[in-house]
Structure formats: C-alpha cells, structure tokens
Write a structure and sequence with these properties.
With 260 residues, this protein is α/β, with parallel strands linked by helices. The chain has two domains: 3-119 and 230-259, NAD(P)-binding Rossmann-like Domain (Rossmann fold), CATH 3.40.50; 121-227, 2-Layer Sandwich (Dihydrodipicolinate Reductase, domain 2). It is 34% helix and 25% strand. The protein contains eight helices and twelve strands. The strands form two sheets. Strands 3-2-1-4-5-6-12 form a seven-stranded parallel sheet, sandwiched between helices. Strand 10 and strand 11 form a beta hairpin.
C-alpha cells in the first residue's frame, strides 16, 4: 500500500524537494500540498489537492502522513491538527524551544509524531559514534563545533549542532546549556576546560555543514559532515513517513527509533 503524504510549505526550498521526490517514489502518493494563504500561486503544478488549511486535506482515515519543515509555530499547529484527525506527522523543523518540544511530546501521546532536527543518515550515524570518540579521547581534548548554512536559515545555531552538542556534553558529564559558548569577542580570558564552543556561519547557498573539533595536546581530530543537496534530508523524511505509517501513538519518535 502506498503511503499518502501531504507536504507543508510546498512552494519552499525543502517542501518542493520533498513533494517532487514523493511524486517519483512508487511507494508514495502525493495526496496534498499546503502553503500560506499569501503564497498559494504555483501549487497548481502539483497533481493533487492544494490549500492553505491542512485540516481541509485530512480525510479522517488516519492514513495521511504530513511532512513539515516550516517553523516551530507552524509545525506545532500541524501536529495539533494531525492529532485531532488521527493523522501522522514527520517534522524536520528546527529552532523549537524546550516548552514547544514538551508540547510535541504531549501530542505524541495521541497521534503518531516523528521529529528529527536532521534527517540525513550520515548525521544520525555520527550521533551514535561521536560520543564514543569523545569518551575514548578523554577530557584532555577540547570540543569545538562549527556549523555553516545558507543565508536564509532563520535559527542559530542549527538544530543539528545543538543536538550533537547536547549528546557530546552528556558524554563528558556536562550540560550544553551551562557549558556552551556560542560567541567569543574581546578579552575573554583563557579557555575553560569545561567549555564547549558552538560557532555559527551563514552565507550563500550552503545546504549544511557541521565540523566537530577534538583539540588535544599535540594533535587534533576533525570530523566533518557536508550535505551536498536538500534531497539528502528529503529522502530521509520520506523514509521516516513510510516507517511512521506503521507505528502507534505513544511517544515522539526520532531517527534513532527508525534505525533500531
């Protein structure tokens, strides 16, 4: 059976990539596209229903999986509408506050929700192996994270940098909120042993690049992930949609659950 997907923000960079790939995938049915009321022009190119209101496209059967890479506020609204219609949602939006994530987790108790700040397979492999690398190197190695994205990205640092920063901090018994240094300027003094630097660069059309520096005595280890195309994330989202269609409500799913 084909997975029925509805794509939010279908005129945007990410949404149009997802919708285009869904059309070509024999396991997928592009069942609907959604855009803001002031940005509906162009939706007619998709061979499915288009609207500014997601609720009008949800049939109530629970078969639809909505894919949303928009904004925290819009994605929360999407999750709420899916919960009311018993539909599923795959969310790749970044920039959620802790309160907003708690709301997503609450909604996941009543409908199938999947959230990941990065849908690429490579990044999610790094999520599993970088903590082991950090523990093996030990606390003589300082951790610095640098991320680069296109000039249109609204949140900083990226959700991926934050997620991996949190995981690596935990691996060393630290807390990114307390130990993270997100900017350096002026006479800042000597670097503390428990600092974790997270730096942000923005410009051009960079899809996404993350470098993790483990700087030790006499050497450094660098691990870099570069996304060459938005299709990397779009394919991950479609894979998540297929997987989520067979799951049950009860928790906020992630890429780690899909890879088990």
């Amino acid at each position: 059976m084909q997975t029925r997907v509805i794509v939010m923000g279908a005129n945007g960079r990410m949404g149009s990539t997802i919708a285009g790939l869904a059309m070509k995938d024999p396991q997928m049915e592009l069942a609907g596209v959604v855009e803001r009321q002031d940005n509906l022009a162009g939706l007619e190119k998709w061979p499915c229903s288009g609207d500014s209101d997601l609720s009008s496209l949800l049939g109530g059967s629970g078969r639809e999986v909505v894919i949303d890479f928009t904004s925290p506020e819009a994605s929360l609204d999407t999750a709420g509408k899916c919960a009311r219609a018993k539909a599923a949602a795959v969310i790749g939006t970044t920039g959620f506050s802790q309160k907003q994530l708690a709301e997503l987790e609450e909604l996941a108790g009543t409908t199938r929700l999947f959230w990941a700040p990065n849908m690429s397979v490579g990044i999610n492999v790094l999520i599993r192996i970088l903590p082991e690398l950090m523990q093996s190197l030990g606390d003589m190695y300082d951790l610095e994270i640098m991320e680069i994205h296109h000039k249109f990205k609204k949140d900083a640092p990226s959700g991926t940098a934050v997620k991996l920063g949190q995981i690596l901090a935990e691996a060393r018994g630290l807390d990114l909120e307390k130990n993270g240094i997100f900017a350096r300027h002026g006479i800042i003094g000597e670097r503390r042993k428990d600092e974790i630097g997270v730096q942000t660069l923005r410009g051009g059309d960079v899809v996404g690049e993350h470098t993790f520096y483990f700087l030790g005595p006499g050497e450094r280890v660098e691990v870099t992930h570069r996304a060459h195309s938005r299709e990397t994330f779009a394919q991950g989202a479609l894979r998540a949609a297929r997987w989520l269609s067979g799951q049950k409500p009860g928790r906020l799913y992630s890429m780690a659950d899909m890879f088990v």
